[in-house]
């Protein structure tokens, strides 16, 4: 990899641990003002210091995130779907040019792929096109394995999705935890970060985080399980303890409860 690609990757996967805690706040690209992100700036600002990277769209980045931030940005560059046409969520395009991503000085870009969906080829084409552009600029590409409507989110499906994304040139892959997660990791030649998924009790989310790290994930890219937590900053700190300090679930949950009450 060229210097620029390595340097950008090190802004995401921190050199001291090789891991990352990413905060996903890109939900509005297809969900609109979803709960917890009604006012993105107010949600993001207190959490930024605890995120190794933030995953926004360019609109939220430009309008809601201070350019003074020292938190790396992984910019969502695919979209074109909305909950108003929920049957067509896989019908994505590339929404943001590589030139704009570079001008926004981001550390990486993110593209969703919908393996097994009606628009499988289109989303894999999107990923391929973004990778073809990204490598010219030393820009890492994070493939986000969205789950096709009729697909079963098991290790067989996620292994296929992650490996295909890596084969097409993704530098990192974001995918869900599942039973047999270590097989998903083993079959994917690039780093995997665990997607947070729908909001679940904090201890359960910390348990999934711990299992994913033990299973070989290099971190997490969490949104709803952070910003919909009763104590988002405390949850970020607890997730960081597992991802960067090898904390146990109990240690992290104790930290969450201590920080929650601070
Ligand atoms: C869609 C996405 C979401 O926009 C978001 O990044 C998901 O984050 P979380 O599941 O942790 O709320 O990636 O596929």
What features would you highlight for this structure?
262 residues; alpha/beta; TIM Barrel; eight-stranded parallel beta barrel; two-stranded antiparallel sheet; binds ribulose-5-phosphate
Your description of this structure?
This protein is an alpha/beta fold. It has one domain: TIM Barrel. It is built from twelve helices and ten strands. The protein has helices spanning about 5-10, 30, 40-45, 60-65, 100-105, 120-135, 155-165, 180-185, 200-215, 225, 230-245, 250-260, and strands at about 20-25, 55, 70-75, 80, 95, 110-115, 140-145, 170-175, 190-195, 220. The protein has an eight-stranded parallel barrel with strand order 1-2-3-6-7-8-9-10, surrounded by five helices. Helix 7 links the parallel strand 7 and strand 8. Helix 9 runs antiparallel to helix 12. The longest helix has 18 residues, at about 120-135. The N and C termini lie far apart (about 45 Å). About 50% of the residues are buried. Bound molecules: ribulose-5-phosphate. The site of ribulose-5-phosphate has 14 residues, from helix 10.
Q: Write down the overall geometry.
A: globular
CATH class membership: Alpha Beta
N-to-C order of helices and strands: HEHHEHEEEHEHEHEHEHEHHH
From the alpha-carbon coordinates, what is the Rg to the nearest angstrom?
A: 17 Å
Please report the distance between the alpha carbons of the first and last residues.
44 Å
- Quick one: how many beta strands? 10
Helical residues, percent: 40-55%
Query: What characterizes the major β-sheet?
Result: 8 strands, parallel, barrel
User: How many H/I helical runs?
Assistant: 12
Order of strands in the sheet with most strands: 1-2-3-6-7-8-9-10
Q: Helix/strand/pairing class, anyone?
A: alpha/beta
Briefly note the CATH topology name: TIM Barrel
The overall pLDDT average reads 97
Task: Give unreliable regions as ranges.
Answer: none
Quaternary structure state of the chains depicted: single chain
- Ligands, deduplicated: ribulose-5-phosphate
């Amino acid at each position: 990899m060229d210097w620029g690609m390595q340097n950008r990757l090190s802004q995401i996967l921190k050199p001291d641990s090789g891991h990352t805690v990413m905060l996903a706040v890109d939900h509005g690209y297809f969900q609109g003002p979803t709960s917890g992100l009604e006012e993105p700036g107010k949600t993001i600002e207190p959490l930024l210091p605890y995120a190794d990277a933030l995953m926004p769209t360019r609109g939220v980045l430009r309008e809601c995130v201070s350019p003074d931030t020292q938190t790396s940005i992984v910019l969502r560059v695919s979209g074109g779907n909305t909950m108003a046409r929920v049957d067509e969520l896989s019908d994505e395009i590339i929404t943001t040019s590589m030139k704009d991503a570079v001008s926004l000085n981001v550390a990486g870009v993110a593209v969703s792929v919908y393996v097994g969906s009606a628009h499988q080829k289109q989303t894999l084409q999107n990923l391929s096109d973004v990778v073809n552009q990204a490598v010219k600029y030393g820009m890492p590409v994070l493939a986000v394995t969205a789950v096709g409507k009729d697909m079963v989110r098991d290790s067989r499906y996620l292994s296929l999705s992650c490996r295909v994304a890596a084969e097409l040139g993704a530098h990192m892959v974001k995918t869900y935890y599942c039973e047999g997660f270590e097989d998903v990791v083993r079959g994917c030649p690039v780093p995997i970060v665990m997607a947070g998924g729908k909001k679940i009790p904090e201890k359960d989310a910390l348990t999934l985080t711990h299992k994913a790290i033990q299973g070989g994930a290099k971190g997490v890219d969490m949104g709803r399980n952070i910003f919909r937590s009763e104590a988002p900053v405390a949850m970020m700190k607890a997730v960081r303890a597992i991802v960067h300090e090898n904390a146990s679930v109990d240690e992290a949950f104790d930290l969450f409860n201590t920080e929650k009450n601070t």
